[in-house]
């Protein structure tokens, strides 16, 4: 068997191996590297506009050199271009880095490896998913080179601003490209999501019941479900917006008089409709971003505390709770948009309920650390950082979820601080924890540990320095998305703070250079990793060191226990991999799940999915 | 406007003036200069300052581009062509539609974003603005640099010590650290044992971090909490409730924040890996799970019920009946307020009625009739301009020779727009929109009963400052002209989006007057402002309206001075006796 795999390996051309690859491991690397590139672009943009906020009167020749004299005359960002950078920064970070870069990387890498499958259910769709994502990135970035500039109405692209090219230069061709990019992105996300869901449901190895899945898989699985149910709504909303822009329809437009065009014909539409459609994706999107990060953290914290994750069942239930509730809280982004106040009251209740499962997860993380034997690997540091951000940002969410307080805090810097900490930093830290933790699996080498520590501490400290003061600005009533704080004299007291935040942001940017250097140099020059460098239980560490298409040389290992048998009493080693049989008994959870074909290759058999059988399997008591 | 002899004398004087003051801009010595044939006086300049700040300042500054160009030096630039400049300021879209070349050039240079129309400004008023500009503005004009300097830094010691040289130094230190780490790694690889116990280092760092983190939070709290709006008390009645809710939320969250953060880092430190230790196998404990499900649930339930009550009290109460109605109108990039006038009723308004003299589109029969005539002539003009398109294209092609580089590219894309028919298409679409508008206006005028033209709007007063009476409940009725804006009044704990096509409102009672708040803040220059808080275009950051809370007497005195919108017609038009149907007419016009 192994020879056959090796043969197969050799037949691959450069293009089929590295470019149009259908191997989930290669696709995950493609997602990761594209995500990192987009992340670098997004972060550079944020530093550029933070420089404007800190030094509104200083020209930076480097900006003029880089953006050209049209967008940064005398080295000062143009007001419209500032908006464009803010918009693109948001779009890139939310969709391209934290959705595709995070889910795309780790769902692709971990789902087949951790559930014991040779590849995704549909490798071809998986490949398409990446290339749609790639095309989408290219289209989005190409909008930077449009004469009227990229989309600049904020990443939430509320019409009428985004629908009327005459309302703002950025609503011209740049906005069209933005919408096209998002349509491509949604196609990518749906292709990936269907694949992840069907792989998790159908291709788990012998013995891998749903209740034995590592929490990463649970999180990635529910994330895919969320994406599948919510992204099509944005697709619909975006298409209607394209119609309004191009074909004269009035879905979102009504009663508009534009300074440059006079009274428009549109009547009967509602801008609020778009907000409902947008946030019906937009809010689950927040959880699409944070859930994989939480899943990764669960795994990394358990492995490096050498302890089982505390309350596995509670963790799964709270994930399910978050996934369900995330669909009925979108209105908290719209408390004061003119939505009926009664609806506001309803969304207030659902929004604050969602804090309960989040609290459960936090306390379970803390309980996992308690009396552990904590190993500060780079991944572990970032996982701890995530928990810290999750606490800070989660608590400020309680303010913003409260409709009454939102009257004061809506669209102020308090919001910016809140979501950057809980969604931006926390998710990025989850992603970095995942990268440090599974780098040995992806590239077969270790990353440099001390550089990783520098990266962690600089990023951690600078992130808090950038985003913590924003809460105070918000409480003082400073609005977000302002090009310069020159409107009122009272904003002047924040000039110094803006300088500090900008310097911290630059420090954060420098910290990422350590990471980039570490990442790319370790791919080629890192220390060889060995099979299981973290002494972890999950199945991905049972694959051979040489990464092959099909993952396992021999038959796929059978699973006999859950993923968290760390430091189990009665065992000498402090970990027992999932494929180690429990003494004397061999549990067959379900039979004939795999069969052997004539050439000796093991294949998952297509069994009909019986609902009751599935349900029984889900509730099979957990063997601990 | 200016007679010919006046114009000649103006040119003559300016030519003479220029001989002496070639570098005149920026000096306060231009009072003698005549603008538009008129002498500049302190009073005129004063008037110009007020007008500039309420009409122009959101998009223009004297130095530096904001959205529109910098206006310093404007008078010198157009000193030979005031008539053109005035007609541009009054109605630039008309000039662009006429195909005026200078107008088109500016329009294209600024990304085809037309400037607002200012037909409500008289020639003299515009001249006053020019005088103000010519005399170098107020000195405290809204230019970033100046306002930055007038503000005192919060704490010099901390903030000013961090600057670029420090950053560079930090970088150097970091580079050295990396070098040292590299050497250590090398030694470890050669000797086979770790020089530094990273696990312990990081465990201690965790502990140091959490202590510094808490210290820094307390330090920042001591500095920045003095700007927290809650420090000054709420300037509105409902805001007190909101502040109370805020306090309770702080009380519920702050202890959790400090406890959980501390526990997180303390556990990380305390349970760091040590040789010979084994972790405690403790996979689950349902009782614990219940505890930390139920306790947060109870806390959140309390916050939910509090928030629910507060929210309902603020936005769903029925105490709006006796509130005074004021309309707040938002447009790119500014605010207007409309007071109901003597009849104490706001007249109906519709976006189809908006033009230069009626920026809010308040219903008035005569105005509507005039508007139809204006639109008709506009259509005729547009149709004429279609005929001239091919000539213009030819002219563009003829002037292509000799251009190189970017300019040539720009020119070519301009030609392409004509050649592809985009320009013509655009004009035809505009004509269609104008026809629809006329159609709608005519239909609205034809409605016999419950007509929107009930004369109630004639005495309405449109102003650029929001004046409120202390203690008097008011309902702000929001209307947007173009895109979504958001009316944010932080001191009144009031915010509501202003959505085109969707009327929104907010009822509140101001309780602290401007002068009282000045005392509270210890800032004699303080004023309340209504600012825009929803991204609405390039000058979003520059969109505000002054709010004055005062006593009844000074409010009435101020209101009496405000002009009625259609003052001349007020006496002539009879207010119809029958009650107009409430919203029907508005909808009719909207849905046609």
SS field, number of helical segments of chain A: 18
Mean pLDDT of chain B: 81
Helix content of chain B: 40-55%
Under the CATH scheme, the architecture of chain A is Up-down Bundle
Main sheet strand line-up of chain A: 1-2
CATH architecture of the largest domain in chain B: Sandwich
DSSP summary, beta strand count of chain A = 4
Cα end-to-end separation of chain B = 40 Å
Query: Helix/strand/pairing class of chain A, anyone?
Result: mainly alpha
At the fourth level of CATH, the homologous superfamily of chain A is Cytochrome c oxidase-like, subunit I domain
Element order of chain A: H for helix, E for strand: HHHHHHHHEEHHHHHHHHHEEH
Structural commentary:
The complex is a heterodimer of chains A (624) and B (592). Chain A contains 18 helices and four strands. In chain A, the strands form two sheets. Chain A has a two-stranded antiparallel ribbon. Residues 1-9 and 586-593 of chain A have low confidence and may be disordered. Helix content of chain A is 61%, strand content 2%. Chain A has a single domain, classed as Up-down Bundle (Cytochrome C Oxidase, Chain A), CATH 1.20.210. In chain A, a hairpin with a 5-residue loop joins β3 and β4. By secondary structure, chain A is mostly helical. In chain A, α5 (79-115) crosses α15 (413-443). Chain A has helices at 2-11, 14-19, 24-54, 61-67, 79-115, 123-142, 173-202, 215-246, 271-305, 312-325, 341-353, 355-369, 378-400, 403-409, 413-443, 449-475, 495-525, 611-619; strands at residues 257-258, 262-263, 594-596, 602-604. Chain B has 21 helices and twelve strands. Chain B is extended and about 95 Å long. Chain B has helices at residues 4-20, 42-55, 74-77, 82-90, 92-98, 101-109, 123-134, 144-150, 156-160, 164-191, 198-224, 237-270, 286-315, 365-387, 389-398, 405-419, 422-446, 514-521, 552-560, 567-570, 584-591, and strands at 34-35, 38-39, 324-331, 334-339, 461-463, 465-469, 474-480, 485-489, 494-498, 504-508, 528-532, 544-550. Chain B folds into four domains: 4-150, Cytochrome Bc1 Complex, Chain D, domain 2, CATH 1.10.760; 197-315, no CATH class; 324-344 and 455-591, Immunoglobulin-like (Sandwich); 364-446, no CATH class. Chain B has 592 residues and is of the alpha+beta class. In chain B, α4 (82-90) crosses α5 (92-98), α14 (365-387) runs antiparallel to α17 and α17 packs antiparallel against α21 (584-591). In chain B, the strands form three sheets. Chain B has a five-stranded mixed beta sheet, with no helix packed on it. A five-stranded mixed beta sheet of chain B has the order 6-12-11-8-9. A two-stranded antiparallel sheet of chain B has the order 1-2. Classes of the chains: A mainly alpha (624), B alpha+beta (592). Chains A and B meet through α5, β1, β2, α9 and α10 of A and α8, α10, α11, α12 and α13 of B.
